[in-house]
Design a protein that fits this description.
This protein has about 200 residues and is an alpha/beta fold. It is built from 6 helices and 9 strands. The longest helix is centred in the N-terminal third of the chain and has 19 residues. It binds S-adenosylmethionine (SAM).
Length: about 200
Amino acid sequence: MEPNDTSARYDQIAQWWQTQHQDSTYGIAQLERAIKFTFKQHAALDVGCGSSGRFINSLSQHGFQPEGLDISREMINLAQRLHPEITFYREDICDWQPPKLYSLIAAWDSTFHLPLNRQAPTIKKLCDALEPDGVLLFTCGGGYTSSEISGAFQGQEFEYSTLGVDTFLQILAEHHCTCRHLEYDQYPENHVYIIAQKT
Ligand SMILES: C[S@@+](CC[C@H](N)C(=O)[O-])C[C@H]1O[C@@H](n2cnc3c(N)ncnc32)[C@H](O)[C@@H]1O
């Protein structure tokens, strides 16, 4: 599924997402684990930030200057209303050119929606956008090989792709990032989060 189609579907559930996730702790322990690896707390980027603002809140509390990016206009509008002081980009991460380097980049349950052929260039772009010792946190499907699946969520059909864990680790290494933590955090669900650090 092309990112614009994913965006249109998230527009439909953006308000629900905000109500449901605003006070949710989902992913926060994993974000805090990633934060522990950081040496500096300068700019941080939440890729596919959604409307809840919970990662933005946590990053602010830890002293970062967070920014949010999302392809869904509704997600961004709602997030911006919650956090008028924060910079948000309404962009497709596949096309976006980072304007600066970041101490931390989080892509929690967002890049797993990209078409398979955009996975590698996007992870490379996120690695390149880290400052030295910067930390990348992202989630992916935990299969051994590349695959694509689809599934219904809140009445919308979404698609997901993964390169497989070994290929993601190879891409990180090729782009000067070391894996610091990899966990099947919802086992037996095939959901993996990876924390990597720029060397
Ligand atoms: C499952 S939601 C997760 C939202 C947020 N990370 C959270 O955990 O609350 C996925 C988000 O990724 C965004 N997204 C999907 N594809 C994207 C793309 N190509 N560029 C930027 N954002 C994207 C969606 O619009 C949606 O807000």
